[in-house]
Amino acid sequence: MVKVGIVGGTGYTGVELMRLLARHDGVSLHAITSRKEAGMPVAEMYPSLRGHVDLAFSTPQDAQLQQCDVVFFATPNGIAMSEATALLDAGVRVIDLAADFRIRDVAEWEKWYGMSHASPALVAEAVYGLPEVNREAIRQARLIANPGCYPTAVQLGFLPLIEAGVVNAESLIADCKSGVSGAGRKAEVHALLCEAGDNFKAYGVAGHRHLPEIRQGLASAGGAPIGLTFVPHLTPMIRGIHATLYARLNRDVDVQALFEQRYAQERFVDVMPAGSLPETRSVRGGNTCRIAVHRPQGGDTVVVLSVIDNLVKGAAGQAIQNMNLMFGLPEGQGLDIVPLLP
C-alpha cells in the first residue's frame, strides 16, 4: 500500500484528491493538512466523504509527512517550492498540483507568478506530469509538476498536429472556457453567484500565467517556438473546461486519422467520431479528455474541440494517474469512473 499525505486538504482540488483516493485500493491516506482547520474531522467539512475518509485535518508539523511514500501539494502557488526539499531528502516523492515547478525557465516563472522561486535547483529535476507525453520519465521521477487545467486541455488538443508538423505553429489560437471551481475555494467577488451566474466573460486577455506553460509544452513537442493566442473565459458552471483550438494546415492530411493514431493507446484520451461535438458534462467527475477534430468546409483550418473536468484530468485525477505510474501501479487504478450525467 502506498502511504499518502495531502498538504492543503480544504480546497476543491484537495477534496477531489480525497474522493478519488478513498476508492483507490492501492493507497492508504496517512495525513491531510490544514493549519486553519486542524483538529476538524474531514467529513465534518465535506459530508460527502462520511464513511470514506475518517481522518481529521492536522497541521503540517503534526502530520509526520516524512513517513509517507508520496505527498500531494494541493496548495496555492509558492508553498510546495518551500517545503518539497525536506520531503525529498527524507525519501518522499512529491506531486505538486500548483505551478511551482512547471516552467523550466525560473526567470520566466518569477515574471508570471510575481514571486522569487525558493527552490530553483529543483525546477530542473521536476518532471512535467502529462502522462501522454512524459510517461516513462514520470515512472522514474521523485518530483512531479502536475500540469494546469487549461494547459492539459490545450496541449492534448494541439499535440498530434504539432508533433506531426502539419500546422503553422506560429499562429495557434486557444479559445477556452472554464467553470468557476477553477478559481479555487476562496472568497473572491468574481466567483460569487451573483457575479458569475447568468454571465460569461473573458479574462487574462493581455496575458495569462498558463500561457508560458502551454507554449513550453508544445515547443518541446514540435522542436520549435510556438506562437499562441490564448484567451480564457469564465462560464457560469461549476466544473469543466472547453477548449476550442484553431490551427492552419501547411499540407493536406487526414486529421481524424492523425488523432486516432496518436491516442490509440491512451485510455484517458477519447478521440470521438468525425463530426462530434464533445460536451463538458460528458467528462464531469471523470479523468477523460474528449476530443473532436474538424475541418470546416474542408478547408485548411483545423478546429479541435477538447473537454476535460478541470478538477479531475485537469488536477487531482491526473495527479493520481502520475502517482500510479511512479509506484508501478496500473495507470488507471482508482480512476475508472463513469462521468456523471446529467
UniProtKB/TrEMBL annotation:
<dbReference type="InterPro" id="IPR023013">
    <property type="entry name" value="AGPR_AS"/>
</dbReference>
<dbReference type="GO" id="GO:0003942">
    <property type="term" value="F:N-acetyl-gamma-glutamyl-phosphate reductase activity"/>
</dbReference>
<comment type="pathway">
    <text>Amino-acid biosynthesis; L-arginine biosynthesis; N(2)-acetyl-L-ornithine from L-glutamate: step 3/4.</text>
</comment>
<keyword id="KW-0963">Cytoplasm</keyword>
<keyword id="KW-0560">Oxidoreductase</keyword>
<dbReference type="InterPro" id="IPR000706">
    <property type="entry name" value="AGPR_type-1"/>
</dbReference>
<dbReference type="GO" id="GO:0070401">
    <property type="term" value="F:NADP+ binding"/>
</dbReference>
<feature type="domain" description="Semialdehyde dehydrogenase NAD-binding">
    <location>
        <begin position="3"/>
        <end position="141"/>
    </location>
</feature>
<comment type="function">
    <text>Catalyzes the NADPH-dependent reduction of N-acetyl-5-glutamyl phosphate to yield N-acetyl-L-glutamate 5-semialdehyde.</text>
</comment>
<dbReference type="GO" id="GO:0051287">
    <property type="term" value="F:NAD binding"/>
</dbReference>
<dbReference type="Pfam" id="PF22698">
    <property type="entry name" value="Semialdhyde_dhC_1"/>
</dbReference>
<feature type="active site">
    <location>
        <position position="149"/>
    </location>
</feature>
<dbReference type="InterPro" id="IPR036291">
    <property type="entry name" value="NAD(P)-bd_dom_sf"/>
</dbReference>
<dbReference type="InterPro" id="IPR000534">
    <property type="entry name" value="Semialdehyde_DH_NAD-bd"/>
</dbReference>
<keyword id="KW-0055">Arginine biosynthesis</keyword>
<dbReference type="Pfam" id="PF01118">
    <property type="entry name" value="Semialdhyde_dh"/>
</dbReference>
<dbReference type="GO" id="GO:0005737">
    <property type="term" value="C:cytoplasm"/>
</dbReference>
<protein>
    <recommendedName>
        <fullName>N-acetyl-gamma-glutamyl-phosphate reductase</fullName>
        <ecNumber>1.2.1.38</ecNumber>
    </recommendedName>
</protein>
<comment type="similarity">
    <text>Belongs to the NAGSA dehydrogenase family. Type 1 subfamily.</text>
</comment>
<keyword id="KW-0028">Amino-acid biosynthesis</keyword>
<dbReference type="GO" id="GO:0006526">
    <property type="term" value="P:L-arginine biosynthetic process"/>
</dbReference>
<keyword id="KW-0521">NADP</keyword>
<dbReference type="InterPro" id="IPR050085">
    <property type="entry name" value="AGPR"/>
</dbReference>
<dbReference type="InterPro" id="IPR058924">
    <property type="entry name" value="AGPR_dimerisation_dom"/>
</dbReference>
